[in-house]
Amino acid sequence: MSLGQLICENVCIAKKRPRLKSGQVILIQVDSIVIRSAKPFLATPGATVHGHYGEILYEGQTLVTFIYEKSRSGDITQGLPKVEQVLEVRSIDSISMNLEKRVEVWNECITRILGIPWGFLIGAELTIVQSRISLVNKIQKVYRSQGVHIHNRHIEIIVRQITSKVLVSEDGMSNVFSPGELIGLLRAERMGRALEEAICYRAVLLGITRASLNTQSFISEASFQETARVLAKAALRGRIDWLKGARYFVTPQKLI
């Protein structure tokens, strides 16, 4: 130890205990050391230090100016096409590949622990949840790259809507739904618990436009787009709209 040496906090200078504060050695004696307490301010290479050695700096003065580089993107409109591709399910290859790997690991581990059929059931639930999380993260990545911060709950509402449908497969023995029919996930789960025969289905990503055109309300579908086609299809099927929700108080304006 030498005169003028700087000592950081929590550095052992004695055998009993480390020093709790930082400072500079100003006096060395046979049985003692005098240290002037000081607080260090660290700077990165290339930073500009305001002031010189021994100069007194008063409160409020700038001590150090840090210089760093940060990539800056353009307007948020540059990122909107990427968000549209995700929400319209036009570029989901990376998400699908990641989910396939995770599903294999989940099904293997969960089935080994819980057995059949609980392992497959819980693995399917985790697959749907993880797909929604991956979509939210992918959309947030685009917005944050443009410097826009949006709370997750706003995106989660949209993601929940585009992942709320399942496609009935031909493997099931139930006659309730036709193969290839799109039904709600919650409805499929309720019907599966109520019926003795199993309903086989797989989760699908619809996209905003297709999800808006596949709802329980044909008035909601007609108010979005393709009004003539939606109303003609609803008339041929004899669909009934029970007008549930607040939007139906403002949707009907005049006779079509």
Automatic annotation (TrEMBL):
Does this entry carry the keyword S-adenosyl-L-methionine? no
The record's section on Pfam families has: RNA_pol_Rpb1_5 (PF04998)
User: What are the residue boundaries of the RNA polymerase Rpb1 domain, all occurrences included?
Assistant: 127-213
UniProt GO molecular function: DNA binding; DNA-directed RNA polymerase activity
Protein origin, superkingdom: Eukaryota
Gene3D superfamilies linked:
1.10.150.390, 1.10.1790.20
This protein's name: DNA-directed RNA polymerase
Q: Does the keyword Nucleus apply?
A: no
Q: Which GO terms describe its cellular component?
A: DNA-directed RNA polymerase complex
Q: Which SUPFAM superfamilies match?
A: beta and beta-prime subunits of DNA dependent RNA-polymerase
Alphabetical list of PANTHER family matching this protein? DNA-DIRECTED RNA POLYMERASE SUBUNIT BETA (PTHR34995:SF1)
What sort of enzyme, by top EC class, is this?
transferase
* CDD domains tied to this protein: RNAP_beta'_C
